[in-house]
Amino acid sequence: MDPALSVVRLTVREAIHTLSSSEDCGLILSTLRFLKRYLGETEDPALPEEQEEFATVHFSAFLRCLVIKLSPVWLELSPDGQLEELWDSFFLKGPADQAFLVLMEALESTAGPSFCLMKMAQLLANFLSQRRMAALMEEQCRPQKKPGFTLLQETLLNKVVGLPDHLGNRLQQDNLALFFPQNYFPLLGEEVVRVLQGIVDALRGGLDCSVSFMSRVLGKICIQGRQKEILDVLVPQLTVLTQGSCLWQRVCWRLMEQVPDRTMEAVLIGLVEATPGRPEVLSRLLGNLVVKSKKAQFVMTQKLLFLQYQHTTPMLQSLLGYLAMDSQRRPLLIQALKELLETWGSSSAVRHAPVTQQHYLSAAILICLAHLREPELRDSQDELLASMMAGVKCHLDSSLPTVRRLGMIVAEIISSQIHPEGPPLKFQYEDDELSRELLALAIPGTSDSSTVLAGGSAPAPTASETLAKTMDDGVESANGSDPQVGPQGSDSDLDSDDEFIPYDMSGDIELKSNKAPLYVRDCMEVLTSSEDMERWEAALRALEGLVYRSPEATREVSVELAKVLLHLEERTCVSGFEGLRQRALVAVIVMDPARVAEYLTSQFYALNYSLRQRLDILDVLTLSAQELSRPGHLKRPTQQVSCGSGAPVLATSQADCTGVSGWRTVVEERIRSKTRRFSKQGFPRRELASSPSEFNSVAGYFFFPLIQHFDRPLVTFDLLGDDQLVLGRLTHTLAALMYLAINTTVAVSMGKALLEFVWVLRFHVDIYVRRGLLSAVSSILLSVPAERLLGDLSDELLEARSWLADVAEKDVDEDCREQAVRALLLLERLKDRLLPLSH
Amino acid sequence: MAVPLPLPPPGPQFVLRGTQSAVNALHFGGGAQAQGRQLLFSGSQSGLVHIWSLQTRRTVATLDGHGGQSVTWLQMLPQSHQLLSQGRDLRLCLWDLAEGRNAIVDSVCLESVAFCRSSVLAEGQARWLLALPGKGSDEVQILEMPSKTSVCTLKPEADAKPGMPMCLGLWQAESSPRPLLLAGYEDGSVALWDVWERKVCSRVSCHEEPVMGLDFDSQKARGVSGSAGKALAVWSLNGQQALQVCSTHQLTNPGISDITVRPDRKILATAGWDHRIRVFHWRTMKPLAVLAFHSASVHCVAFATNGLLAAGSKDQRISIWSLYQRT
Question: Which domains does chain B have, with CATH numbers?
Fold first, then answer.
């Protein structure tokens, strides 16, 4: 055996012996100082071989011994704190990995809360703040030959990443702020950058290094869900560092490549999240990772696009932009587009996927299209076109307006990209936030410009630009001066226009010649036979008022009039035609509910009506039921007449009305001030005039004919088949009628019928239908008296309840889930209300 | 930056009812010599002239001098208590209203059955000029009053064929004593006559339809005319006594029956066949308000010296408005 080595061994053994037995401060201090020679950094360091041996063989054992000795009494042996300082220095100066492991081990084995535990936690905090963690990790990046090295690394990895958890568990309430995850991981991020800097320097110096430990650390942190903490520190720094340096980029790519497959997903998602809308950064950090790693490819092209949809649009832009930035990755983008379109065009996906996911998919498609050029699409043109056609069809078939709109927007843009020379596909849809957002995605280049801004590297405007701008301003200001002054300089009136603020002129519309008929029968005649369009329009406009004013005359011709209105077609371009016709129909029903409702409900299931007409029937039934069930509904029409008919005297009706109520309040106020009251009650509260609900006697005419025939398909009308949109509206109408039938005598039997109806259709595939069913259940719970619900409908309710629970948990549509929860809450409330009764 | 919503147009300050027939002519009287008692004269379809007190908002007196024929024009002579009224009975009556009297002191027979309103030029002199439609259908007659001497008859040249005069405006430039006459004709043109020389100084065709009303601002040498069509025309007079159209302003509905610039020349009001009164800023012609109160054609609008606006309508009501008052 090498004599020098045995010298080290002997010294260490002696020192351990001294430490464990001696109480003499001077002796302990001198022993420790002597040993410190082996760590270097003193005036007369030991020989390198001795240092090496001490570090590899004896250091851990010695540290353990130090830990055992640690106690307040022992540290008090040297009152000036020399001993404590020396004690600390062994942990902070010696090999970082061993010191860290011993510390962690000691922290775990020390019973807490105690002085020792706190002392060691403090030491660990010092260890972290003195950047020893970087030293630790850097050590692991050197090429290693020692046996048991992998095991050591594994342990280190666990301890490094799990430090906040371990410390949290040990210290409980006394935990130091530095060990909180939100502080520790950013610090770790800084350390990682430092280590990488070291590696880059080493590589420049021609030394060999491996980043695999760093990759594992990164992966482990990410998979623990701390991507945000560490990447928020890491990504901005790496973004800057990789900007101009190939070496840094290579190191970064290597770092990402070495991330274990198991944790790859967490890292990639974290990175995409950390670089929203900045594909070039992602590209610098990842390189061609997607091409090299199967796992990365799967995450980037499948998981992020198809299996998840919570990510924001800038993230999508960054992800797909990354795919588009390199010629090696571009095939992946085309492949992704194909797959996206395939999913987009699959009718089952459209039917079963939540709306948010469909929105996400659409956005992804549009971003892909913005990146791809027409020549690249040419090969797969037919395939894309086929998917698009299928997709458009199933989107337009959907009963949800959002889904339909998505279909239109995406189809327009795809067709314009695939066939830029052909005639453009154009749908009519309302321009709203959603459509604007999506259309903005489709414009290629917008993402680039935004990134320039986000990067903050927008070049300052050059001098010539600034000059041009100021000149423009000058011209503008010259032109901007009041042009009136020139030709009319003599007009020296000092009246500014400020005092002449125009009033609202929206009422200034074209005056229609007054050809409106004065009787309901005349109106009807004009509507059926008149060729004079102006007269026809005037009749249509006057009808509602006439109907309300002359109930008797209306009743005589009510069904006939309803028929005329139902079949009325828009002959000229009358603004608000639909509304006029609808209001007139509602008025007719309100005037003669039983017969007209009977007629309309029978027509709903008749042959030879268009879907539009059937939908109209449902709408007017709902509206008129609402009108009938409103307390005091008959008061409104008279007012409407005054405003609508244009009778001269009543043009000021508004002012008059307020005048009338005005004098009444004045009089009441006067009476109140002059009246002394002796009772505490005060004056009688004003009550709303109560009147019987008109809907009570006729609810059945509205409801039962509608619910009876839904399962009998006609040649032209199949509610359970293709016409699910109408079925959806029917369920909503029934729900509304049920709700409006509150406090009526037929509510119980209506509820029973409706529950059966719901039960039959409960697994309908269409979201809109399901929403209607759920609202039907809610309105049953609201309208049918609680005692009758539990008495007559208890079985049905039990069944409905389990169905509701199922929907609340599993339905794809958020609205459906919400409605189901509401219905369940109503059920609960019902139970609560009845429990006291049963006791 | 949100644009504040414009205010809804105001309602009338008050409404005078009780003429019991369509109101065809309005004129504010009183002013300085009325000692604060402001009066409004209204001429109705049934031939009566009502004198309204704006303080009590009731009729002070009713003048019946046109034999049940519609009164089309009313004008107070300045600095006197004399009122001129023109009726469809082809008479122009001069009423003496001083000290509560209401008697016809003089009358002129009209020789034209047209609807053209007359015009007066009186600068406080004892003698004043009266322009009224003449015997021939396209003539305008100028009389010197109160002597009723015919000064001249203004007849367009044979080849001009402007049709009947529809509205008249006698005025005098401050710089010269020459009386001038603006006449709107049936063919939509406005002509400027020099009364002394009996010739047309200038003529400008500014409407497609007959000119129904005009008003002239002699300070700015700018006038405005309304017609049966859908536009207002603003024209100006240059130094060479030549009329030229400055601009036209489209209206929503056709038909203007009267047009008046407020005495302070800030705003102008039009009486529309579409039941509405429209208010414009006179300098910029910016539309300021559309007052929808009447339920039939508005026949006449008039401004008081204090800025009050009155409008008379076929629906037998007179509405009084207070808009953009500088108070």
Answer: 19-108 (2.40.10.480), 111-217 (2.130.10.10)
